[in-house]
């Protein structure tokens, strides 16, 4: 046994549930399924109660306290009836429960110290006929359960722990990493954890795997794993190119320098406002931030909008000459909810949250004029239009520079803060909820004021100020 295998075995010992933990889980599952069966008996339709997620596939890690119960309803039901009967049965299964929402409502609660999701879906014969994403989950459970043996399931646990340690586990749209199902398929495809790591170290994206040789659909993603139960779906569609590269980096790192710390999730200590202020001062940059209240939407809606808004505002700052060195979004964490498997997505917290878009500028102010080049004189139609547009304007010119007309026109905004404090901000590409939030009002924080974000987002700013290869 070499050092890589020795490290893997030590991690395996840490993440493998023991007999007592398994017995406790099995007892809770048995009682929950009985409750769900009883809860559905009085409904006017026949309901199939199934266990899903990592506990059903025996790929859960020690300490996991999540159980997913799926209620499979006849396809003849419309969505309104599915919602009504699903919530009724869910609350009967978990009397002390509440409702959360993904594509449709479901029930979450606690039972015997476990976090429980009771999720309604449609009972389909084929995963290609799904009506919402949760309809796929029972097919995934059946496919993986029929192919995993104890050894490979144990390797899946080790792989999940590595992905957790390096910050790439979870297919929610904030993380954009590896779902539980994707992890299981990759370990199955390679026959174990170490073969997967050795292969990943040498991948040249785009990389494609097709476990059932469907061989038809094409996808423009860095990693493609054709869903064995649905040939038109890439299981890795959510995975970002960054997180794929992150896995490759740590695959090489593990093989070159095997150590258990790669399997341990780390959290930086939060920084205070004084530290943030001093760090930006030392960098010689100008931080500017927009702080605002975001609505109560699920993380899978919020974070794509935050990223779109950072890109839209940052791109406009760059186009106006205020060079963005780096930018990020920060947001309050959502309130704790009943556990959700990473492959199933996120759930909302009860209250609105505060978020901010932070831009670190290399250039915060520009001259009062800007150079604007026109078309070549040899292109008559466009050249004449350009000349006539500026001939009687306040711009200097038009004059010739080489074969082109050029003007030096007044710059609309000479400072980044002038732009960020104007209505022009709302004309850039923003997430719809973010645009509404900014329209309602925001705080513009500049220089030392931006450092006050640390009072609320100290840990997230710590990651920003000391970036590493690890995720989250």
Write the topology of this structure.
Elements: H1 3-15, H2 19-41, E1 48-52, H3 53-57, E2 66-73, H4 79-93, E3 97-101, E4 105-111, E5 114-122, H5 137-145, H6 150-166, H7 180-190, H8 193-200, E6 207-209, E7 223-227, E8 230-234, H9 241-256, H10 273-283, E9 286-294, H11 299-319, E10 324-331, E11 353-361, E12 369-376, H12 380-391, E13 396-401, E14 404-410, H13 416-420, H14 432-440, E15 443-446, H15 454-465
Parallel strand pairs: 2-5, 6-7
Antiparallel strand pairs: 1-2, 3-4, 4-5, 7-8, 9-11, 9-15, 10-11, 12-14, 13-14
Helix pairs in contact: 1-6, 2-4, 6-7, 7-8, 11-14
Summary keywords:
472 residues, alpha+beta, Beta Polymerase, domain 2, Poly(a)-polymerase, middle domain, Alpha-Beta Plaits, 4 domains, 5-stranded mixed beta sheet, 4-stranded antiparallel beta sheet, 15 strands, 21% strand, globular
């Amino acid at each position: 046994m070499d050092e890589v295998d020795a490290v893997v075995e030590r991690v395996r010992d840490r993440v493998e549930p023991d007999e007592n933990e398994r017995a406790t889980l099995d007892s809770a599952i048995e009682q929950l399924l009985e409750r769900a069966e009883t809860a559905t008996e009085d409904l006017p339709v026949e309901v199939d109660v199934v266990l899903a997620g990592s506990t059903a596939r025996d790929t859960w890690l020690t300490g996991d306290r999540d159980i997913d119960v799926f209620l499979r309803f006849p396809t003849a039901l419309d969505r309104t009836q599915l919602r009504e009967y699903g919530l009724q049965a869910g609350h009967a299964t978990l009397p002390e429960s509440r409702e959360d929402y993904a594509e449709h409502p479901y029930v979450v609660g606690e039972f015997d110290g476990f976090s429980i999701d009771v999720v309604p879906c449609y009972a389909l014969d084929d995963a290609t006929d799904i009506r919402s994403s949760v309809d796929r989950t029972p097919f995934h459970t059946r496919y993986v359960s029929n192919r995993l043996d104890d050894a490979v399931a144990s390797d899946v646990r080790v792989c999940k722990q590595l992905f957790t340690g390096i910050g790439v586990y979870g297919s929610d749209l904030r993380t954009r990493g590896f779902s539980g199902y994707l992890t299981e398929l990759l370990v199955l495809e390679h026959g174990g954890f170490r073969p997967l790591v050795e292969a990943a170290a040498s991948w040249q994206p785009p990389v494609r795997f097709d476990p059932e040789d469907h061989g038809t659909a094409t996808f423009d993603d860095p990693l493609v794993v054709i869903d064995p139960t649905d040939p038109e779906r890439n299981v890795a569609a959510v995975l970002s190119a960054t997180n794929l590269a992150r896995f490759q980096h740590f695959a090489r790192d593990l093989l070159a320098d095997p150590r258990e710390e790669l399997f341990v999730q780390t959290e930086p200590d939060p920084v205070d406002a004084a530290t943030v202020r001093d760090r930006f001062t030392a960098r010689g940059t100008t931080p500017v931030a927009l702080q605002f209240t975001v609505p109560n939407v699920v993380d899978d809606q919020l974070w794509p909008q935050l990223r779109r808004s950072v890109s839209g505002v940052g791109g406009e700052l760059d186009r106006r000459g205020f060079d963005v060195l780096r930018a990020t979004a920060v947001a309050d964490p959502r309130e704790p909810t009943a556990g959700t498997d990473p492959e199933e997505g996120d759930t909302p917290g009860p209250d609105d949250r505060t978020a901010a878009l932070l831009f670190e500028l290399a250039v915060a102010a520009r001259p009062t004029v800007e150079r604007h080049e026109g078309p070549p004189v040899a292109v008559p139609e466009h050249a004449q239009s350009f000349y006539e547009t500026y001939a009687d304007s306040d711009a200097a010119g038009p004059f010739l520079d080489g074969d082109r007309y050029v003007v030096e026109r007044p710059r609309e905004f000479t400072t980044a803060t002038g732009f960020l404090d104007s209505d022009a901000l709302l004309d850039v590409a923003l997430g719809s909820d973010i645009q509404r939030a900014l329209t309602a009002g925001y705080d513009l924080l500049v220089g030392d004021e931006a450092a006050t974000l640390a009072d609320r987002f100290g840990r997230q700013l710590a990651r920003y100020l000391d970036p590493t290869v690890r995720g989250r």
